[in-house]
Amino acid sequence: MTKLYESSTIPVVIFSSDMEIFWFNESFRAYFPGRKLESENMSALTRTQLKMNLATAKGYSGRFQIKLKSDKKVSSSIVLLVFPVDTTSLPPMQFVGYIDDITQDRNMMLRKTYLGLLEASKLKDDDTGNHIKRVGAYARRLSEECYHRSIFPQINPDFIENIHFLAPMHDVGKIGTPDEILSKRGPLDEGQWAIMKEHTINGALILSNYPDIMAPEIARGHHEKWDGSGYLFGLAGEDIPLAARITAIADVYDALRMKRSYKEAFSHEKAIEIMTDDKGKHFDPDLFDVFLSIHGVFSSIYEALSDDAEIIKPDEIEELQAVEEIEEI
Fold first, then answer.
1. How many Å apart are CA 29 and CA 208, to the nearest integer?
2. How many distinct helices (H) and strands (E) make up the chain?
3. Which of 53-62, 81-90, 258-267 has the lowest average pLDDT?
């Protein structure tokens, strides 16, 4: 497991249920200069009641916001995300922790960089900028609904904010796909299809240095299917990261609604009918039930951000949440 994180820019630490640190990578060490981490206790290191909080947390997982003092006058704000290494052994004996640096200026600069990359990828693909915006809006709305219903413990306000930004990057790997494949009218042959599939792993590589593991997970996993028949790795069920399962629903819905070189646009009703047939096959059945309960909001988002509509700001999508309540009256 440690080999996976050794050279990662994501700061990672592994520690015991007694808060004893077993292992950490260099990215994690960089946040605690001058301290002997090998002999540190995680509760003392993070200045939190980490052991107590994890013992009472749902799923033995937690999110802890920490202020780090430095020699400079500026402090860093970080979030420590903690999960059990082995969920089959309860209570867990080991935990893995990831640091997400949420310092505002750093995040703004980082997001501007990746937005520039997203703009560059749009030059390669025939999808409109509004498709990208819609996928982000769908993913956020579906995540919000799951959060309100407490269905998936890993969904919290940070998850919702991050998926809104990162779901639109699901196809960024197409920047490495040849133009003649992306622009081909009609079906791809076997060799072309194999190349097209590689956009998932290319996207994961491009996003691998983004300081949230959700970024490469979405790029790599948004074409995986619940029954294991997807690509690139044939993952099934909960082995597919949750953010990728959410993005899959958002992306497929919008792809069905859009006119493409190889198909006409489907109505909202037809898109729902087609997707319902794939519940439990393509889509996570529990997640899909949540989607069905709010599918009217997806239609409203599509209309508000349609390719012919006046472009609105991303934060104005929040106003569309009220549409669901209006439709129920």
1. 19
2. 16, 5
3. 53-62
The token pair at 125 is 């693909």
Instruction: Give me 96's structure tokens.
Output: 């893995």
Higher pLDDT, 186 or 125: 186
Q: Report which residue type is found at 173.
A: G
What would the pLDDT profile of 132-176 be if each residue is shown by its tens digit?
999 999 999 999 999 999 999 889 888 999 999 999 999 999 999
In the predicted model, is pLDDT for residue 317 greater than 70? no
Query: In which domain, by residue range, is 47 found?
Result: 2-102
- Beta-bridged to residue 28, according to DSSP, are none
Q: How far apart are CA 222 and CA 184, in angstroms?
A: 22
**Could you say which of 102, 118, 145 is where a domain stops?**
102
Q: Going edge to edge, which strands form the sheet with 21-24?
A: 21-24, 12-16, 94-101, 76-84, 62-68
Catalytic entry in 122, 124, 133, 174: 174
Distance, in Å, from the CA atom of 169 to the CA atom of 283, rounded to the nearest integer, reads: 20
Give the DSSP H or E segment for 84: strand 76-84
Shared domain for 47 and 116, answered yes or no, is no
**At a CB cut-off of 8 Å and minimum separation 6, what does 9 contact?**
27, 208, 209, 211
Residue 174 annotated in active site: yes
Q: What's the longest Cα–Cα distance across the chain?
A: 63
Percent of residues, the chain, with pLDDT higher than 70: 87
- How much is the average pLDDT of 261-283? 93
Query: Of 83, 90, 89, which Cα lies nearest the Cα of 61?
Result: 83
Based on the fold, state whether residues 116 and 170 are members of the same structural domain: yes
CA distance 4 to 12: 10
Task: Tell me: do 95 and 147 sit in the same domain.
Answer: no
